[in-house]
Design brief:
Elements lengths: L1 H21 L11 H18 L5 H5 L3 H20 L16 H27 L4 H24 L4 E8 L4 E6 L4 E17 L5 E12 L4 E7 L4 E3 L2 E8 L9 E8 L3 H27 L4 H26 L12 H21 L6 H26 L7 H19 L7 H19 L21
Antiparallel strand pairs: 1-2, 1-8, 2-3, 3-4, 4-5, 6-7, 7-8
Helix pairs in contact: 1-4, 1-5, 2-6, 4-5, 4-11, 5-6, 6-7, 7-10, 8-9, 9-10, 9-12, 10-11, 11-12
């Protein structure tokens, strides 16, 4: 793994040199058709590396755990820096990590490793050397992540996101782009009625807009846009974004966000493959473990499941009794929160019993639930805010935690490993999980910049 850490360090140095010489990464340059060309070139490069793997040691090495683990460690460190600093669109260096060359190169390196690893497993499957119990969850998880990473990254340049301020009785064709410029839209929207419901204390319970949509193709649509309930027409998804907070329920305007994302089906394909992989991995691990467990050990596992379920239930119940802002009133709320807390409780148990025994199977199951919770959150975010992953502070720390546990899982696959180091990796991952769960609320970088911080104006 020394080679891996040296190469990762070299990529960071290279990235710093690029940052100083050419400036930050300009993602807008990858708009179609540039991103399509880059993606095709990337696939050709991976194919060439696979073909030359026997002649070039580095290409063969990059499909091993010794390459993946250091790369993920660097990704955790850089993403922690991202989570500790306030991110700004026009920020520099650590304040705009998505355009920071070392960050981009490390994640690109991980994607290359991922692609080569998938090729390596496919070769084993075609040779008949694989095992269905291992190959199915492996391919679903790895190929799903590869598809989601590549299409979400390169497709980001094609996403169009604009805001439209619509008034009562005034059809509006114009919208404001993120840079402040005005764009004429292919659809017009007229506000018919603004709806607002409040709790007894005056906090918003629901706000929505009854609107009429006119398209250049002649469509005339009347619908209601609610928070968490967007409407799609002609490739544009319309979200309820805001209103005149001074007027409240008497608001004569509504603020809508319109989003067009042509790459979304590919990203969702990756998400659903990862969801399927997480479910399959959980079922396989449980079947492999429980069919060998009898007597006292069976009761221990049953007790762990009951404890995790009760902890998740009571935490969710206490949270659900609060006055929920409109953004939280979604069918995704219960599964997202419950599954996440269930995973947290299992990982907490894993840290405790790791003092006495190996807990790999428990970590695998917990990680599967962690993955499911994270993907549920991404799907929910798309319905609520129009983006499945925006590197919001909460999302950033979720990624840190997820990758940290991936480091542990991959380390445990090495033929030579140190149990003490694995134990400290497990503790370190759990500490990062605590930061993601509640510690983020005390970080200056998250104050006023996280969509996961809810106020009465939302």
């Amino acid at each position: 793994m020394k080679e891996g850490f040296l190469i990762g360090g070299g990529l960071i140095i290279t990235g710093l040199a690029l940052q100083l010489s050419v400036g930050p990464v300009v993602w807008d340059t990858f708009a179609w058709p540039a991103n399509g060309i880059v993606l095709a070139t990337f696939f050709v490069m991976l194919t060439a590396m696979v073909y030359l793997r026997k002649k070039v040691y580095a290409f063969q090495w990059m499909s091993t755990y010794q390459a993946a683990i250091p790369a993920m460690v660097y990704a955790v460190v850089l993403t922690i820096l991202m989570g500790l600093t306030r991110q700004q669109v026009n920020g520099t260096w650590l304040n705009n990590m998505l355009s920071f060359w070392p960050f981009v190169l490390i994640y690109l390196f991980i994607t290359v490793i991922l692609g080569l690893t998938i090729h390596r497993r496919l070769r084993k499957i075609f040779r008949g050397d694989g095992s269905m119990k291992r190959d199915i969850p492996f391919m679903l998880n790895h190929l799903g992540l590869f598809i989601a990473l590549t299409t979400a990254t390169l497709g980001s340049a094609d996403i169009q996101r604009v805001k439209m301020i619509c008034g009562v009785g005034e059809p509006e064709w114009r919208a404001m782009e993120q840079d402040g410029s005005i764009k004429e839209m292919p659809i017009a929207i007229e506000l018919k009625k603004f709806i607002m419901e409040t709790y007894e204390d005056g906090k918003p319970k629901r706000y929505a807009s009854e609107i009429q949509i006119l398209t250049k193709s002649g469509k005339n649509i009347e619908t209601t846009i609610d928070v968490n309930k967007p409407y799609e027409v002609d490739g544009w998804k319309i979200y309820q974004y805001g209103y005149d907070t001074q007027m409240g329920a008497q608001s004569q305007i509504t603020i809508l966000e319109l989003v067009s994302d042509q790459w979304l089906p590919w990203v969702y394909a990756g998400f659903y493959m990862m969801l399927a992989g997480a479910v399959v991995m959980t079922l396989i691990v449980l079947w492999r473990r429980l069919r060998k467990v009898t007597g006292k050990a069976l009761w221990i596992y049953f007790g762990l499941a009951v404890f995790a379920s009760l902890f998740a239930y009571f935490f969710f119940d206490s949270y659900n009794t609060k006055t929920l802002v409109p953004a939280l009133q979604s069918p995704w709320f219960a599964p997202h929160v419950f599954v996440y807390i269930f995973a947290y409780s299992l990982l907490g148990v894993a840290v405790v019993i790791a003092w006495w025994k190996r807990v790999d199977d428990l970590v695998y199951v917990s990680f599967s639930f962690l993955t499911i919770g994270m993907l549920f959150g991404a799907l929910w975010a798309k319905e609520a805010w129009g983006h499945y992953w925006s590197w919001d502070p909460k999302e950033t720390w979720a990624a840190i935690t997820w990758i940290a546990y991936l480091v542990y899982i991959h380390y445990r696959q090495l033929p030579q490993q140190r149990n003490r180091l694995a134990f400290w990796m497990l503790i370190g991952s759990f500490v990062l999980l605590q930061m993601c769960w509640w510690g983020i609320n005390y970080l200056p970088s998250a104050q006023g910049s996280s969509v996961h911080t809810y106020s009465t104006s939302e």
